[in-house]
Write a structure and sequence with these properties.
Helix content is 32%, strand content 23%. The protein is of the alpha+beta class and 150 residues long. The strands form two sheets. It has a four-stranded mixed β-sheet. Strand 6 and strand 7 form a beta hairpin. It is elongated, with a radius of gyration of 19 Å. Binds to the 23S rRNA. InterPro entries: Ribosomal_bL9, Ribosomal_bL9/RNase_H1_N, Ribosomal_bL9_bac/chp, Ribosomal_bL9_C, Ribosomal_bL9_C_sf, Ribosomal_bL9_N, Ribosomal_bL9_N_sf. Keywords: Ribonucleoprotein, Ribosomal protein, RNA-binding, rRNA-binding.
């Protein structure tokens, strides 16, 4: 079965790749989960759109990743507003998407929310925290941010 991947799949390929898989794997796993679409002529146009979107949010190369790391190191004033109780305990959790938005608002680079690594149970109340950002396979940066009451 010939399929076009719409998302990265371990040990198979990245979004936009055209792959040949066994019928059962494609029909029972990849297609129902939305990880792939059947390869047709019209789907080829979708592949181009997927690749364009992927290139827009991807870090271009190692040098670009190092530049982004320097920008993140210089960045100050990153504040993530959340709902809190009177004692400062937050309701819910701080998501990587909120951190990426706060970095952009503070004048930093645009980060992909999937590249921000937020350890489970890290943020429980207002205060200052640090998370890691995987910019490239060889480059990892850290972002300092402050959780404030909204």
């Amino acid at each position: 079965m010939k399929l076009i991947l719409t998302a990265d799949v371990d040990k198979l390929g990245v979004a936009g790749d055209i792959v040949e898989v066994k019928n059962g794997y494609g029909r029972n796993f990849l297609l129902p989960r939305g990880l792939a679409i059947v390869a047709t002529r019209g789907a080829q146009k979708q592949v181009e759109g997927i690749k364009r979107a992927q290139e827009a949010r991807a870090v271009r190369d190692l040098e670009h990743a190092k530049e982004l790391k320097e920008e993140l190191a210089k960045l100050e004033g990153v504040e993530v507003p959340v709902r809190t109780s009177e004692k400062g305990k937050i309701f819910g959790s701080v998501k990587s998407e909120a951190i990426a938005d706060a970095v952009k608002k503070a004048g930093g680079p645009t980060l992909d929310k999937r590249s921000i690594i937020v350890p489970k149970n890290l943020v429980k109340q207002t205060g200052s925290y640090t998370v890691d950002v995987k910019l490239h396979s060889d480059v990892e940066a850290s972002v300092n941010f402050k959780v404030v009451s909204a």
